[in-house]
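Lab notebook, bench 4. Still working through the backlog of constructs that have no structural model yet. Next entry is a single chain of 481 residues. Request: give me the structure tokens for it.
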Amino acid sequence: MKTVMKIFVVLVLSFMAVPGTCPAQNVWKFNADSCRARALENNAAVRNADLKVQAAVETKRSAVAKYFPSVSANVSAFLLHDYLVDVSTSDVTDGKISVEMYSDGKSIESYISEALDEIAPLFEQFGVDIKQEVSDFVSGLSYNASLQMVKKGVSASVVALQPLYSGGRIINGNKLARVGVEAAEIQKSMTLKDVSYGAEQRYWLLVSLNEKMKTLESMSALVDTLYRDVEAAYSAGLVNKNDLLKVELKRNELMSGRSTLNSAIALANMSLCQYIGLPLEDTVVPVDGLEGMHSLPRLPMVPDSTEISRRDEYKLLSLNVEAEKYKKRLILGESLPQLGLGAGYFYGNLWGANTHNAGVFVTLSIPISSWWDNTFNYRRQKVMEQIAVNEREDYRGLLSLQVRQAWDELCDLYRQVGIYEQTIVQAEENLKVNSDYYASGMVPLSDLLEAQALYQQSVGQYVDKCISYKLKVLEYDNMIE
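Model written out:
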């Protein structure tokens, strides 16, 4: 495993060392609005939010389709090894088989009896009882009859069923689907706000790091100049080596800070690129800087407690209460009768002849055994509805507290921005005074280095407070919109 890792590292270093083999890099100059727009266009969370809205709309369309008749078609064919009906007189061991023949609505036996009555007198002259002779002859006859039918066949049907009453399940199902669409749209709105905030957060982080790098480079230039002056003074014997070592330590400290900042800037740049849909190898150059920090958004208005109902989180909780109510009605509908009106067309060919038929019918389904089970489900759903109501009312107070806390933090940041703005002016003046005093030999080197550190620190803190204020304003606006 170690060998594989060594080979991998060598290949990566070789790839980076060969000119022209690094991937092409694009440099983009963006402001906060540009980053936010690209994030809303390319971020995966936004695309997924759109897809969830589409899925909710399709669910609603599916619920609307329940209002219309359901149509089904069935076709079947069969071929049997033996006849489905195969009956022979020889197979009858118990009971009897009766066969009667008719002509013009009159049985054949009646015709024969009438004919024998007409010719009987003629045979009586010769002493022959023709009726008895015929009866004896017939009684001596034997016969074997069989019936075979239905060995193959085809049948088809088309049936349409229109629900007339379903216990309110279709209506409440559509209402529940509508709530789902509204919830998906609100969640999309929340996603857009979160993505916008995430884009600005990453953008201003990059701005902050770049401004700190500018300040550090400015301090490095001052320290380099100071190092040359102290080195010359040390060579001339005007200062001791301790002063030279102090400046060298400061230079090393700034070099270490530059290395850390470079890594942080590279990581922040990649994070922003990934978030707004750019290749990680690209570079984003922020348009904003320290000079633009003075045009901060003004302090928003004091929050109004009545605006809580406008928040997306509260709307979602209200929709959750509504959804639980419709779920309760759906469970109740499962215990109510269902009435439907249907019509059908039927075709069959079972014994070689085509048959067609059509008809209408009414269906009534009354659940009986499920009443017991649905009673407990209905009670459980009533509890779930009350839980949703309690959560909404409890969260209403939490939302009010959250808005008030954000407002207090916003006011505090606004005051701190003003304080640190004055701190920069004072630190800059302090650095100028100590530089002049050091040049005149009135203060030691340590005071000058301390003044430089204070200026660098005050600039970094001012930038951080300005960015924190900008982000807090955006967060507060998202809360009350």
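Notes after review: The first strand starts at residue 27 and ends at 30. Residues 55 and 181 are 9 Å apart (CA to CA). Flag for follow-up if needed.
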